[in-house]
Amino acid sequence: MIKNFIKTAWRNIIRHKTHTAINVIGLALGMTCCLFIFLWVQDEKGIDNFHKNGKNLYAVYQSVTANGKTNSTYTTPFTFGKGGKFFLENIKQAIPEVKAQAFYATGYDLPWGHPETIQVGEKKVKFEGSRAGKDIFKIFSFPIVAGNAVTPLESNGSIAISRRMAEVFFGTPAAAVGKSLRYEDKYTFVVSSVFEDVTPQSSLKFDFLLNWELQKTMLEWSSNDFQTYIQLADNADPKQAEDKINRYLNPLLNVTKGVNIHIGLQRFGEKYLHNNFVNGVPDGGRIEYVKIFSEVAIFILIIACINFMNLATARSVKRAREVGVRKVVGSSRGNLIGQFFGESLVFSFLAMFLSLILLLALLPAFNSFTGKQFGFPLANISFWISLVGLALITGLVAGSYPALYLSSLKPVRILKGTLRFTQGAIWFRKGLTVFQFTLSIILLIATIVITRQTSYVQNTHLGYDRGNMVYTRVEGELGKKNKYLLFKQEALKMPGIAIIDRTSEVPQAMNFVVYDDEITWQDKPKNSQVGIKPASVGFDFVKLMKLQMAQGRDFSSSNPTDSADAFIVNEEAVREIGWKNPIGKWVKAWDKRGHIIGVVKDYHTQSLHEPIKPILLDVKEGEYFGVIVARTNPGQTKQALESLATVYKDINPNYPFTYQFVDEEYKKLYSSELIISQLSIIFAVVAIAISCLGLLGLVMFSAEQRIKEFGVRKVLGASLGQLMGLFASDFLKLVGIAFLIAAPLGWYAMSNWLQDFAYKIDISWWIFILAGTCSLMIAILTLSFEAYKTAVANPVKSLRSE
Length: 802
What we know:
Layout: H1 2-15, H2 17-46, E1 57-66, E2 69-73, E3 79-80, H3 91-94, E4 98-105, E5 116-120, E6 123-127, E7 129-132, H4 136-139, E8 144-147, E9 158-162, H5 163-170, H6 173-176, E10 180-183, E11 187-195, E12 208-211, H7 212-218, E13 222-223, E14 226-232, H8 238-253, E15 260-267, H9 268-271, E16 277-278, E17 281-282, H10 287-314, H11 316-328, H12 333-370, H13 381-406, H14 411-416, H15 423-459, E18 469-473, H16 481-491, E19 497-503, E20 520-521, E21 533-537, H17 541-545, E22 549-552, H18 562-565, E23 566-570, H19 571-577, E24 586-589, E25 592-600, E26 615-619, E27 627-632, H20 637-651, E28 660-661, H21 662-668, H22 671-715, H23 720-754, H24 765-791, H25 795-799
Parallel strand pairs: 7-12, 9-11, 21-26, 23-25
Antiparallel strand pairs: 1-2, 1-14, 1-15, 3-13, 4-14, 5-6, 5-10, 8-11, 9-12, 10-11, 16-17, 18-27, 18-28, 19-27, 20-24, 22-25, 23-26, 24-25
Helix pairs in contact: 1-12, 2-10, 2-12, 2-22, 10-13, 10-15, 10-22, 12-13, 15-22, 15-23, 15-24, 16-20, 22-24, 23-24
């Protein structure tokens, strides 16, 4: 029976090649989109979920509430200088539920956060590294491939390196164990272990790890750039453990009255996708994109299935006699249903085969703009099960209406030639088309909004000029004030350099201190706290960044008191502190008491997801960390880089010269939005294309039904334009109805998406007009050919049987 179904289906497919091609291409496009989205979603959900202890592994976050505002972060700023208190270190002993813990260092305002120089012999290479607690390899599943697999970071003089790093310096992991390497031209470490290269499925990225205990002895200031991870005991209640941690820490923190600090626990495997905070708890993040594209995959597949239904219905008049004859000779309705389902499944599996070809062909391009490293999942059994399941579901859904409808036709009516479709059946098919175009128009509206928002955040003026700016890390000899000033002096003599200055912060990605109680100011109300970001800069920082002064004056090297007695704040700091006339007011921050000499207009120091925050600038040209920023002359970037490299090599010969462009690094803040924008464009185009195939199916069906009507109208004198207008009007009404439904739904969805941005575009009325016009024009182009062919048909042929 099944063999006969497939054989008959194949004959129909071969006999009607155009119909087959349209059906298979429509289904294949829908399946291909689903497969790409499946790979992307599976990869996103797999981030950080490969660790053996994953179910008991938690990231620590803190929420600080002051002045009615709650600021949450994954960093744990409980480290206070050499010999200071590290409050979270003892929770393993104090909290029974905590089985293991490890600190992990990250950030720009510490000596790391940039690639660091590693030297073996004469070879010097920069690698990304970090500091971690000695239990890091017990908590996380980063396999050790050579060396000490039990306690890789037990000694302060040991270093654990990646396979890639071992191969660069020593050839093999085994050869690296026990060998010495020079770190930052300051310390010598012995390789204790070599770990497997960190998988792309990990959100923690590093090529080497140093011992956390060593880093403690090097700290000279309070910092908030440490993350804490803990492993709870089996069957431990994370809520109870969280409560105990807070009860343990509260007496130790000595928090200012009016400020509340709460420590929370989040399962580590959820952190990547749920990394936004709302009211002090993780809520949303990249998971929203996973949800959106999962829905898009379902929508596109539904659109493709609707196509099949409409195209099958368009051919139903031709197949009605076949159904009638089969019923007369004894075929049951069940057999007919099986026949039509068999055909749809054959179509579905042909489409699946074509979608696999498209997947293989387009996978490299998909990888390039998503930043992923997808390979064809040939050995992934779940992929093949999902693929076969997708084909079966698609075939059954797509074939359901044609199978049930055609099998219900009465043979007497069919063979008498009086087949007519009920009004309900006609409205059902029109409803399917409206549904198709509704989804397509929503995707089109979403694509326009996402593309505009992405363009806005990448191109909006930030309050400073980020063009023609390049920065390099302060390291080695450049950490000495006299060497930095020499570098600045010599570089300014070289071609292409307009201005140079230094700053403790990367201009486009400041990491903000949370409500530091060491900051006080003139006329400060009791228990008032303001989270101000400190940034030490040079005398020319305001000129370098092209910031605008709102009040007061800039720093000046001709005024010797500025280094010891001057601060500049931004407008947001003035607003939060509550000053009306800030110039001349004193501020005490980080062991310095100085006066406000100027106020700069607000400028963005983070992505536009975040609001502008209070900033305090302090002149410290002798800082041993941070970055040196140079503004190049327009059109002379190449000469400027050569100039910087020459001076850098002369003054800092033990470190390779590396650099980053400020505007390029800024754009990386929106890499997710850029990817989403590109994917949205692709999926919107595919959805519109598939919807047009569905519209084509309905047009073909209507042409079959109205061929004699058009013949009569033509005989009675109707013109070509009148006939085409009459034919097209019904379908354009469907597109119009779809637009009326899609517009409010698209506005609602995009309004919710934009809530994640502190600075965003307005959803203008013209976006909906553009989306509606585009869908209307595409619909006109789709139906125009069939309308023309029907209108110019010879009426003699259509009426000769009457």
